[in-house]
Amino acid sequence: MIPKPTFSRQQAPLWQHELRKAFARPADLLEFLQLDPALPALQLERLRDFPLRVPHGFAGRMKKGDASDPLFLQVWPQAREAEDTPGFSQDAVGDLHKLKPGGLIHKYEGRALVVATGACAINCRYCFRRHFPYSDAIAARGHWQETLRQLQSDPSIEEVILSGGDPLSLSDDKLAELVTALDALPQLRRLRIHTRQPVVLPERVDDHLLSWISGTRLKVAVVIHANHANELDSSVAAALERLRDAGATLLNQAVLLKGVNDSVSALEDLSKKLFDCGVLPYYLHMLDRVAGAAHFEIPLEEATALMQALSSRLSGYLVPRLVREDAGAPSKTLLPW
Ligand SMILES: *Cc1c(COP(=O)(O)O)cnc(C)c1O
Ligand code: SF4
């Protein structure tokens, strides 16, 4: 059983306060990082669809004065986003057609993904989410009855994957309500949460969150989305330790990104740092070919060469699986190297 929160609800949690303070104006971020105010950027009016958004704590892990910092590159809206590149589209992974009422995407056997919310604590420029029509999809907007009904109608589903957006953008009251309902479905064994918040907003891992994670009978896996070792500072390590103490198994999914982590040493450092934090590398994703993100793409031959070099340097369990999402395939496509 998930305990009802016994905490005072007088004040909004600290993480929501941090979220409201996040950098939203390119000029403010440049000033904070002591970068050239004239650094080229996407035109403001084009930025409106997918704005800049960076929590202060995450920006604090970027190197001042370095426009090629691997964390900065993940969030900086480059002018090149406006370029049209053949092969890059609005719905790169074909999910828009798969979305059922209640925010459910059931593409793969045994597990179903719930698009819980469209909101994120950070806006990552490589993300497929930038073109997602969330208003139609979101499970949290009163559609949970429909989500639960759909799950019950297919007893082969034994794992629910909370995704988004970032599912931890929802309040703990909402999440506890959903997880209590999932807990009561006997067919379910596992709850997986795909979230970047323990990394970009470690304040999010507070007592309210931990109470429903430790309270469910479901086995919980939290897949954090870290792309570079510099993202994992001591505040993140502490948040991850608390998640493990609450009983969650921690995995990481990274995206292979040009300029960010496309070197053997960057990938090696990431795997080692993850394990220091009690997280196992799970997937290394090829970029989803989404319009606006072409400047991050690494060719397949280069990716496989990186994997070969990486696997010669690391223990087997520290080597992530190189995968690509192919529309219509029965699982992620494992890419041999
Ligand atoms: C990636 C994904 C999953 C999970 O796949 P795993 O290989 O189990 O990590 C499930 N559903 C959808 C729709 C996905 O895109
Ligand atoms: S869904 Fe993940 S990758 Fe995309 S913007 Fe949100 S946190 Fe970043």
TrEMBL record:
Residues where [4Fe-4S] cluster binds: C120, C124, C127
Residues found modified as N6-(pyridoxal phosphate)lysine: K332
Pfam family, one: Radical_SAM
Keyword 4Fe-4S tagged: yes
GO MF entry, a single one: metal ion binding
PROSITE patterns from the UniProt entry: RADICAL_SAM (PS51918)
InterPro entries xrefs: Aldolase_TIM (IPR013785), EpmB (IPR022462), Lys_aminomutase/Glu_NH3_mut (IPR003739), rSAM (IPR007197), rSAM_sf (IPR058240)
Sequence ranges assigned to domain Radical SAM core in this UniProt record: 106-321
Keywords associated with the record: 4Fe-4S, Iron, Iron-sulfur, Isomerase, Metal-binding, Pyridoxal phosphate, S-adenosyl-L-methionine
Catalytic activity: L-lysine = D-beta-lysine
Cofactor: [4Fe-4S] cluster; pyridoxal 5'-phosphate
The keyword Ligase is assigned to this record: no
NCBIfam families given in the database record: EFP_modif_epmB, KamA family radical SAM protein
Family from the record: Belongs to the radical SAM superfamily. KamA family.
Protein name, per record: L-lysine 2,3-aminomutase
Lineage: Bacteria, Pseudomonadati, Pseudomonadota, Gammaproteobacteria, Nevskiales
